[in-house]
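thread from #wetlab-drylab

HS: before we spend reagent money on co-crystallization trials with magnesium ion, can we at least see a predicted complex? here's what I'd submit
DV: go for it
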Amino acid sequence: MAVNRKILILPGDYIGPEVVDQVRRVIDWLSDVRSVTLEVEDDYFGGAAVEAYGEPLADKTLDKAKTADAVLMGAVGGPKFDHLPRDIRPEAGLLKLRKKLDLFANLRPAMTFDALLGASSLKSEVIKGLDILIVRELTSGIYFGEPRGIEGKENERIAIDTQRYRENEIYRVAEVAFELAREREGILHSVDKENVMATGILWRDVVTNLQRDRYSDVELRHLYVDNCAMQLVREPKQFDVIVTDNMFGDILSDCASMVTGSLGMLPSASLGAPDSNGRRLALYEPVHGSAPDIAGLNIANPLAAILSFSMMLKHSLDMVEDGLLVERAVCAVLDDGMRTADITEPGATELSTDAMGDALLEKLMRMSEA
Ligand code: IPM
Ligand code: MG
């Protein structure tokens, strides 16, 4: 009997719709050739939702996200929306979606592709074979802590942000990171600012105790965030899984993605807690932004969105083999010298967004027949 899975697609703004269109083609193809029916529903999100509904994340969209097996997002934001009041900016919609779905574990892989080593500003030998996974806490810390705001009279204003963590918020994201580290290389780097911050002391304590109680088979190494930033650029391959808080994770994941040199290739997943059936709410999105400067030109790189979908296949749809197939197809297309404008180089074949989608589908068909 055919299994049904529901995917909510939030294309978002600028190049968002263009890159997710290529994912739709992969979804349709899988639906045709597998005994799984992947049902897709769409909604507005971000700036597009401000235009359609007057707010970046409407309640009805949130309800759809809660009942879907997984959500795929394109990208949100851009200059058209920068003048909006802060509470209805696209970014506010994204933060609300994370918080309301309680997507506390943000997985941001940073890996290099052999075919693209030249794209990094670091030497090839430093990054060849790089495969890091940053696990960023996503629903707490300074992004959400109260009190926050600006108060006081003109010229004497005070701005307040609050970094705040509860033990269980640290525990649950560390648990996700330890599980992943156990499946991978068995080493976890935990990053904090324990020499300065109270939250850093608690962070280190909770992670240390968790390792002692449940993950003594995983090697745990603690690192200050400033040192981690330095080490990421100096010798990135010393890392496998890194776990850190919301703000540090925001910064370190940008740093790690640029180390690979191919921002247009990187996917991400944000996961909630499993329910009694082991089902987690989950949001998948490319790491790149909405790229207003190239929107509408059919030149955006769809591979990060496609790789985000492959993470969805693995983490949410119980289709691990197909997720791996999609990843292999992406590598094969690159090995054939196919490139979108952002990753092109002399001698390569430069393709439009659609043409990259064509090339990928052709590979998928060929590889699944083989
Ligand atoms: C990210 C982005 C967001 C964040 C912004 C757009 C709110 O930088 O996903 O890394 O800071 O979390
Ligand atoms: Mg960021």
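DV: The CA atoms of residues 23 and 154 lie 50 Å apart.
HS: ok that's useful, forwarding to the group
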